[in-house]
Structure formats: C-alpha cells, structure tokens
Design a protein that fits this description.
- This protein is an alpha+beta fold and 190 residues long.
- Helices cover 36% and strands 17% of the residues.
- It has 7 helices and 6 strands, in the order ββααααβααβββα.
- The chain has a 4-stranded mixed β-sheet with strand order 4-3-5-6, covered by helices on one side.
- A hairpin with a 2-residue loop joins strand 5 and strand 6.
- Helix 1 packs across helix 3 and helix 2 runs antiparallel to helix 3.
- The termini are far apart.
Length: 190
C-alpha cells in the first residue's frame, strides 16, 4: 500500500510535492478509452516485462504513456506482475520528476524560473500565463487541456524569459498566440 493510503478506495496523488489522499476514480472498474478495464489494460502493458529484472522504469514509462499518469491501481498490477513491492515501485517512481501520480493536461506549459529568466521577468510571464489559462502553478485545468508548472532552467538562457509548451521553446512574444492556438485545437501553429 502506498504511504498514507487507507482503504483500497483511496489512492495517493502527488501535487506540488505534497502527498494527498484522493478518492479513487473507479479503480479496477475504470474503463479505458479502448473499452478494457484499467487492470486489463495495465496487465497488457506490463506483460512484456514480467520475469525480467531491471525493467521497472521502462514499465512505469509505458504505463504513464498510456494513462498519462500512474494510477495507483495500475501500480498495484505492476507490483503483482513484476513481483516487486508496491513501496519499491513508489520509491522509484517518486524519485524521478517525470513520473506523475495525478492526471495531467494534454498540453504542459512550463515557465522557466532560472536566474537569467528571473532577471528578464519570468515572474511577470508566469502571472500572464496563469491569467491566460486560469490556472496557478502546479494546477491542471478541469478539462485536462493544460497543466501549468515552473521549471528551474530549460537551457535557453539567451532567449530569456523562456516558456515551453509541450517541451517546445516558445518565445515570450508568441506565447499568447500559441496558447490560443492550442485552445482552438491546431497544435499551436497558425
């Protein structure tokens, strides 16, 4: 059982580096887009890794690739199929910042808060993005269109202040247009 989890109808979420108990979203009965249950789908994802040592991170990546995050019930299946403890899986998954325990938006907007970006006004850029999206740092929109977060540095200091949308650098003057395009569904392109 994950740290802090009570009964099986609770799962642990990771948000702004805090563990939060949340009611499960249907657990094993949650039906995925392809019509299978979460447990069936997870077993299919994990099957190629069963009985193979050193494959946990790969299996976690595949599970997250399908669901967009790591549902607790999927982690339970992973533990069962790989023969490792749930606490071990939790320890590995929580170590890496690319694994997520709550559902995220289809589009991830990151505002750089590194030194060069701070000097060039990243705080104002973050406030502008928060206003445009109606989100605060660390939040995901109710329709799962956007997740907003800050990042320490994206390595483009000469372009400061920097925003990335889906891991693509967006110059600050184009940010508003790109976000509007994403809302319209054309991928941020004219």
């Amino acid at each position: 059982m994950l740290p802090g989890a009570g009964e099986s109808n609770y799962h642990i979420s990771y948000n702004s580096r805090l563990l939060v108990n949340r009611l499960s979203e249907g657990g094993e009965n949650l039906v995925t887009e392809c019509g299978t249950t979460l447990l069936e789908r997870t077993r299919g994802i994990v099957a190629p890794y069963a009985g193979r040592e050193g494959m946990l991170v790969h299996a976690l990546q595949d599970v997250q690739g399908v669901f967009g995050y790591l549902p607790e019930d999927a982690l339970r299946v992973l533990a069962e199929e790989l023969g490792v403890s749930l606490s071990h899986i939790w320890g590995v998954a929580s170590f890496y910042d690319r694994f997520h325990f709550i559902r995220r938006g289809r589009n991830t907007v990151r505002v750089c808060t590194g030194t060069a970006c701070q000097v060039q006004g990243s705080r104002n850029v973050l406030q502008q993005v928060e206003k445009l999206l109606g989100l605060r740092n660390g939040e995901t929109s109710p329709d799962f269109s956007f997740t907003l977060e800050t990042v320490n540095c994206v390595g483009c200091c000469g372009l400061a202040p920097v925003v990335t949308v889906n891991n693509e650098v967006v110059p600050a003057p184009e940010m508003e247009r790109v976000l509007a395009d994403l809302r319209k569904g054309n991928g941020g392109n004219d």
